[in-house]
Specification:
By secondary structure, the protein is of the alpha+beta class. It has two domains: 1-42; 45-302, Deoxyribonuclease I, Chain A (4-Layer Sandwich). It has seven helices and twelve strands. It has helices spanning 3-42, 91-101, 120-128, 196-207, 210-213, 231-239, 280-285; strands at residues 46-51, 69-76, 105-114, 131-140, 143-151, 157-162, 172-180, 183-191, 218-223, 262-267, 270-276, 291-296. A seven-stranded mixed beta sheet has the order 1-4-5-3-2-12-11. Strands 6-7-8-9-10 form a five-stranded mixed beta sheet.
C-alpha cells in the first residue's frame, strides 16, 4: 500500500471518528436540554415578578384611596398569539384590549414571558400604568408561562400556589394582597384543569388558600374551564359568592362565545353584574373574551370571616 493511500485512509478514518464524536456531542446536548426542560416543567410554580410601573395610574400613597366599589376583570391572553394561535406573538393586541376594560384589577392567564424578551410583561404594565405580579406555572418552549395580576394599586404582598395535581397539566394560582384606607383585600388569579377529577382537587386546594380562607375579603378570578356543570363548579358556586346575573356570560370561543369558562367569584364581598367584553379587538386578540365585574368591598369594621 502506498504512503498516499495510507494517509488518505487515515484521514478518512479520523474524519469519520470526528464526525461521529460531533454527532454524539450534539445528541448529548439535546438530551441534556430535554432533561432540563422536563425538570423545569415538573418543578413547582414560583413567584417570578412583582413590578411597579414607572408612572403609576394611581399616585402611590401610604394608604391608597381604594373605593368601596371596584371594577375587576379576568382575561386568558392565549400566550399573545391571537384567537387561532397561528400568528406570531403580538402582546400589543391584548394590551389594547386591556386598555379598553377600564378595570382596577385584572387577572391574566396563559401569560407568556418570552426567554428572548424577559422585560415584555414589565413594559406592558409600564405602558398601562399598572402594577404587576406574575407567577410561573410551567416552562414553555418559548419562555415562562403562568398567571399574572395587574392592578391600579401597589401590591402589598404576593404568593403562589401549585395546584397541578397532575404531571400532564401544570397549573398554579397567584395571589396578591392590597391595602387601602378602607381596609385590605386579596385577589387570586388561576387557570384550572380541563380534567374534571383534577379540577375538583384544584378547587379544594384553592378553598384552603390563606388569602381566600381567612385573611379578609377576597376575589377569585380566572379561566375555570367550566365547560360543564361538574362538581368543581358546584363547589365554587356553593362556597363562594356568585353574582347578581341569572347566568354566567359566555366567553369562549371569542368569535362565537358559547361556554362560560371565565368566571369571577368573591368571599366577603359582593359581586354585581358580570359581563363579557365583546369588541372587534377582543374577538381577535385571544381565543377567550375578557369577563368584567363590579365588586363592592366591605368596610374593614364590617368584614365577617364567616360571610360568603
Amino acid at each position: 500500500m502506498s504512503d498516499r493511500t495510507s494517509r488518505a485512509r487515515r484521514t478518512l478514518v479520523e474524519g469519520g471518528a470526528a464526525a461521529a464524536a460531533a454527532v454524539r456531542r450534539s445528541a448529548a446536548k439535546r438530551s441534556a436540554e430535554r432533561a432540563k426542560r422536563r425538570a423545569a416543567a415538573e418543578a413547582s410554580s414560583y413567584l417570578c415578578l412583582v413590578h411597579a410601573p414607572r408612572v403609576p395610574m394611581t399616585p402611590v400613597e401610604k394608604f391608597p384611596d381604594v373605593p368601596s366599589e371596584i371594577t375587576v376583570a379576568t382575561y386568558n391572553v392565549h400566550r399573545w398569539i391571537g384567537r387561532n394561535g397561528r400568528r406570531r406573538a403580538d402582546p400589543g393586541q391584548a394590551e389594547f384590549v386591556l386598555s379598553e376594560l377600564g378595570a382596577d384589577v385584572i387577572a391574566l392567564q396563559e401569560v407568556l414571558r418570552p426567554s428572548l424578551d424577559e422585560g415584555l410583561l414589565e413594559e406592558l404594565a409600564d405602558r398601562l400604568g399598572l402594577h404587576v405580579a406574575f407567577a410561573v406555572a410551567r416552562q414553555h418552549k418559548k419562555g415562562e408561562l403562568g398567571n399574572a395580576i395587574l392592578s391600579r394599586w401597589p401590591v402589598q404582598s404576593a404568593s403562589t400556589l401549585d395546584i397541578s395535581h397532575s404531571r400532564i397539566e401544570r397549573r398554579s394560582a397567584v395571589a396578591a394582597r392590597f391595602s387601602g384606607a378602607m381596609g385590605r383585600f386579596a385577589v387570586i388569579a388561576t387557570h384550572l384543569s380541563l380534567v374534571d377529577r383534577t379540577r375538583k382537587r384544584q378547587v379544594r386546594s384553592l378553598m384552603g388558600h390563606p388569602e381566600l380562607a381567612v385573611n379578609g375579603p377576597a376575589i377569585l378570578m380566572g379561566d375555570m374551564n367550566a365547560w360543564r356543570n361538574c362538581q368543581a363548579t358546584r363547589v365554587l358556586d356553593d362556597e363562594l359568592r356568585k353574582h347578581d346575573n341569572l347566568k354566567w356570560p359566555a366567553s369562549f370561543p371569542a368569535t362565537k362565545p358559547m361556554l362560560a369558562l371565565d368566571r369571577i367569584y368573591a368571599r366577603g364581598a359582593h359581586v354585581h353584574a358580570v359581563w363579557s367584553h365583546d369588541t372587534e379587538a377582543s374577538r381577535s386578540a385571544s381565543d377567550h373574551l375578557p369577563v368584567i365585574a363590579r365588586v363592592v368591598l366591605p368596610d374593614a369594621d364590617d368584614w365577617d370571616p364567616n360571610a360568603r
